[in-house]
Amino acid sequence: MPQTSPWDRLSGFRAPGFLDRHRVWLAIIGAAGLAVALRAPWFGTPLVEDEAGLAYIAAHAHAGGPNLFGFYFIDRPPLLLGIFHLADATGGTPAVRAIGALAATMLVALVALIARELGGARSAIWAAFIAAILGSSPALLSVFTPAELLAVLPSAASVLLLLIAWRSFDRVRLGWFALAGFLAIVALLVKQSFGDALVAGLACLAAGFLFERPRRRSWMAASAAYAGGALTVLLALELWERLYQVPDGAVTYALLDFRIQGLAALSSSAGLLLDKFTDRLLLPLVVSGLVLVLLAAVVGFRRRAASMKSVYSLASSSAAAPCLAMSARMAVGAPRQSRRPVTRPRNQSGSTTHPGSRARSEK
Q1: In DSSP terms, which residues pair with 67 in a beta bridge?
Q2: Are 341 and 72 in contact (CB under 8 A)?
Q3: CA-CA distance, 109 to 106, in Å (whole number)?
Q4: Rounded distance, CA 273 to CA 28, Å?
Q5: What does the pLDDT look like over 99-136, one tens digit per residue?
Q6: Where are the domains positioned within the chain?
Q7: Residue 61 gets which letter from DSSP?
Q8: Which of 304, 119, 123, 317 is nearest to 204 (CA)?
Q9: Considering only Cβ atoms within 10 Å of each terminal Cβ, which end of the chain, N or C, has fewer?
């Protein structure tokens, strides 16, 4: 009979067996603690420029103005401003730092669970600590609370629910698909460039419809559930626009048109584009060590693709690629130079307008 310690007899389990059964969750707890510890030296720092601008506009936004947030213009989605409004109402700078720390720990858990779905417990443990380091990296400025760190949470959660729904063949999976679609659109309303989860959802549904022919009817139901979850968020956005008296076209201009105009201006100068690529993308990739993670992920993806024996493997890998891109952009998006909140020039009536609303008024 194996010897047991007094602690084992009191607690009712043997420590090695308990550790083995719960090693993923223990790794998540440890990695989450590491993420918080890495952020600790920055808990007392003032808000950086981007954070301060978001907090200011969130505190002063109002209904009825010519722009998305009243008389202030900023190219950020409403849910991001809502998060900073909550932080402003619950403590200001300490609340912003606390939200960033909470987001980093949630990122650790989500990435680890995605890795467990794709590669098992060993992959989950590695992923948890990699996420902790990158999610609280000074080189990537993710020790603060960038929009990318907040948007990656619903995006990663959506990918995780897709993987769970894929291996669930009962009616419950329709609920998972609906929630995955819901969170995919939520991610876009936190950071408009985070369409990775939406791409993963379309890839997953297309793979199921094309390769699981005997179950095409169930996959049509899954697609309808996913679309229903996504439409729920869009309907909520439309309701918010009406209640908040947002002008027609203000959301589209702030989240899409303004960005396209900025990219057009940036692309007109090849030298400036190269400098920004080097300073804001290449250097953070190398200094943070993210480039090593990307290379290892490519190798792992190729090995998995070579041994695919089921549609589940195909769908898992199709979801893993957007998730990898999502994690990379979460990291490299933060180092860019933060822009101050932009206000449009006032017209003769004392209000501010964006070009779209001005054009409509002239018509």
Answers
A1: 70
A2: yes
A3: 5
A4: 39
A5: 999 999 999 999 999 999 888 898 899 999 999 999 99
A6: 20-337
A7: -
A8: 317
A9: N
